[in-house]
Design brief:
eight-stranded parallel beta barrel; 11 helices; Aldo/keto reductase; NADP_OxRdtase_dom
């Protein structure tokens, strides 16, 4: 199954279209049970996702067989030193305790720019040590753009990368960076395939912030409607059809949503037909830059 389960909603309120808030523990258990039935393999979490790791550790059944990917703290300092590398390892061991597991499938640098400041190499060295100790199978980084990918591939050996891609955000596809990663033997996990639910919202509900691209969204909806596709099928099917993508990380609020996403991933689409809906403006395709009305951020 190419669908992986994002768990940020298990720890914090998240998503422009999320009206349900943080997912209750009883629903988390139901989601994880459904994930097992659907053969969803990857669970994506992070030390910064509130108490998501703790919730997973409490709810995961014994010998669940999931591949867990978690992430480091963010440092955001002009220079990194040995204490920062030590903090990375300490937080990781805390993550293992919270997750109630002895090792994880993947550990990612959460803030790619932390690698590019003086001393940033200390962080990757710390990840490598954890991997050598058998605590992590694959090490890598979460990225936002092609410049970060270029710098990382030039300086470090990584096994895994998580990156944004969607019908609206095709920057890394168009630039050839998806293929560049695959040629380097890097496993690629896609995130933001729904743009926090923007691609699933009714056009009438879209926040005013997106008014400059409303015509694109309306055209896109007309396009998929003419082809008999539901918004979920189009959004998931586009990314699922990209051969460079190994896993599609999707967050859900309930078990039925996960089943619907897995069903949608089986729809075969010609990804090239969606090229006209790509938006290059980062203020639109990068949720970290969104400036929404109070209560919609």
């Amino acid at each position: 199954m190419k669908i992986g389960l994002g768990t940020v909603q298990f720890g914090v309120d998240y998503g422009v279209s999320n009206k349900d808030g943080k997912t209750p523990a009883v629903e988390v258990a139901a989601i994880l049970a459904a994930a097992g039935e659907l053969k969803v393999r990857v669970l994506d979490t992070a030390s910064l996702y509130g108490d998501s790791e703790q919730v997973l550790g409490n709810c995961l059944p014994a010998a669940a067989g999931f591949d867990i990917v978690t992430k480091t703290p963010q440092f955001a300092k002009p220079v990194l030193d040995a204490d920062d590398a030590e903090r990375l390892q300490q937080v990781f061991h805390e993550s293992l305790t919270k997750l109630n597991c002895d090792s994880v499938y993947g550990l990612l640098i959460h803030r790619a720019d932390d690698l590019f400041v003086p001393g940033g190499e200390r962080l990757m060295a710390a990840l490598t040590r954890l991997q050598q100790q058998g605590l992590v199978a694959k090490i890598g980084v979460s990225v936002y753009d092609s410049a970060q990918i270029d710098q990382i591939l030039q300086r470090f050996d990584i096994d895994l990368v998580q990156l944004p891609i969607s019908v609206l955000d095709q920057r890394l596809l168009v630039s050839g960076h998806l293929q560049k990663l695959k040629s380097a033997g890097v496993e690629v996990h896609a995130r933001s395939v729904f743009l926090q639910g923007l691609l699933l919202m009714d056009v009438s509900e879209i926040p005013a912030y997106f008014a400059p691209v409303r015509h694109v969204l309306e055209s896109y909806r007309a396009f998929i409607r003419a082809r008999g596709l539901a918004p979920l099928q189009a959004a998931v099917g586009f990314v699922s059809g990209l051969t460079e993508i190994d896993q599609i990380i999707c967050g859900v609020n309930n078990a039925q949503q996960l089943r619907d996403i897995c069903d949608a991933a089986n729809v075969e689409l010609d990804c090239g037909e969606f090229a006209g809906f790509a938006i290059g403006e980062e203020a639109i395709v990068n949720p970290a830059l969104w400036r929404l009305e109070p209560g919609k951020s």
